[in-house]
Design a protein that fits this description.
- The protein is mostly helical.
- The protein has 3 helices and no strands.
- It is rod-shaped, with a radius of gyration of 32 Å.
């Protein structure tokens, strides 16, 4: 019998098992890192276009709201309001309507964020499965 064919001792077997378990958990940590990295890359990639679009949309909304205030002011002046009163009332009405819409979007989005599931499901499931295998082997 050569040295490679001799039966291994219990200590060697347990040591090998511990090494295998250690390697398994290292692989699971690598999986978690890869999963997080994948999600972060996706968010960053999507965020660039979102940021550019958001800046342009803010400018467009500002111009649109100015046009609404001006148009409502002209309408109020045609109804007999003085220019300062028409400007005040039209600014107030537009601000209240837009503020109400903004509040509606913000409160709805905050409620959705509170319900969001940001867990690492693949990694958690894989680690639980590995833990069960380790328990069964002992």
């Amino acid at each position: 019998m050569s040295a490679s064919e001799q039966p291994r001792s219990i200590t060697d077997l347990v040591g090998g098992l511990v090494g295998d378990i250690s390697g398994l958990f290292r692989k699971e940590i690598q999986l978690a890192k890869a999963e997080v990295s994948e999600k972060v890359d996706h968010v960053v990639g999507s965020s660039k276009g979102l940021a550019i679009g958001g800046v342009l949309a803010i400018g467009a909304v500002g111009v649109f709201l100015t046009a609404m205030v001006t148009g409502l002011g002209w309408l109020l002046m045609a109804m007999g309001f003085s220019e300062p009163a028409a400007s005040f009332v039209s600014s107030l009405v537009v601000a209240l309507v837009v503020g109400g819409i903004a509040w509606s979007f913000i409160s709805g989005s905050l409620a959705e964020l509170k319900k969001a599931d940001l867990n690492l499901d693949k990694t958690t499931h894989s680690l639980a499965r590995d833990a069960e295998v380790v328990k069964e082997s002992f």
